[in-house]
Specification:
This protein is mainly α. The chain is built from nine helices and no strands. α1 packs across α6 and α5 packs across α9. The protein is elongated and about 60 Å long. The N and C termini lie far apart (74 Å).
Length: 220
């Protein structure tokens, strides 16, 4: 009698399906970046992904499902890229917040292609409940991570960090990052290398009342 062995077929199939979904999302993002939402037809996406339109409908029954998944992928990718910057940051929480902000205001996040994608999707947020939910989830996910970094930085500097205080600062600092990111994507050539990141850090230090350079101490 042979012992039962765990089948790898199901996990292999799952991995294959996940890869196919990722490929379809990637093809969709290419279309949106180059042609806008109007040009991101199922036919064009199928051509780029080298699949049939029927296969797209198998994974995404409606085009809106695919568009929503693509928007979530963009939001998640930028958040993950910013979070990855923390891996190489110093252990001090102020240095970690500094690294997170700097990552958001530099390549590959502050990139005209990301702006094209964002602009292509954002017009649907008020017209499509699914897109509105995707936007809300992306915004809150980013802001929650930012708020946690702010709280840790404030505590490291010996400053108050109650939840109402950190929430409001996360909203304000998210707005600072968004505004500088937008300018950098639209006209990055008019700024010196690192200028927008330095400007953002200076503004955020003023909002929080602390230095984000641990070597300079706490409050400013």
């Amino acid at each position: 009698m042979t012992a039962n062995r765990p089948s790898t077929r199901k996990s292999f199939r799952r991995e294959g399906e996940d890869k196919r979904r990722e490929d379809l999302i990637a093809a969709t993002l290419e279309c949106v970046a180059e042609r806008g939402l109007a040009g991101a037809t199922v036919r064009e996406i199928a051509l780029r992904a080298d699949v049939t339109a029927g296969l797209i409908r198998y994974y995404f029954p409606a085009k809106d499902d695919l568009i929503g998944a693509a928007y979530r992928a963009v939001m998640n990718r930028m958040t993950v890229q910013a979070s990855d910057a923390l891996k190489n940051a110093a252990d001090d929480p102020r240095a970690r917040l500094n690294a997170f902000v700097t990552a958001n205001l530099g390549q590959p996040i502050m990139d005209p292609n990301n702006l094209s994608l964002w602009a292509g999707f954002i017009g649907m947020v008020h017209a499509d409940p699914a897109m509105a939910l995707a936007h809300r989830d992306g915004y809150l996910g980013f802001r929650d991570e930012l708020e946690a970094l702010i709280r840790e930085a404030l505590l490291a500097a010996g400053k108050p960090a109650d939840s109402n205080f950190t929430r409001r600062h996360a909203i304000a600092i998210n707005a600072i990052i968004d505004g500088l990111w937008l300018e950098g994507c639209l006209a990055g050539d008019i700024f010196a290398d690192g200028e927008l990141a330095e400007t953002g850090i200076t503004a955020i230090e003023a909002v929080l009342g602390i230095s984000l350079n641990p070597e300079k101490g706490g409050a400013i």
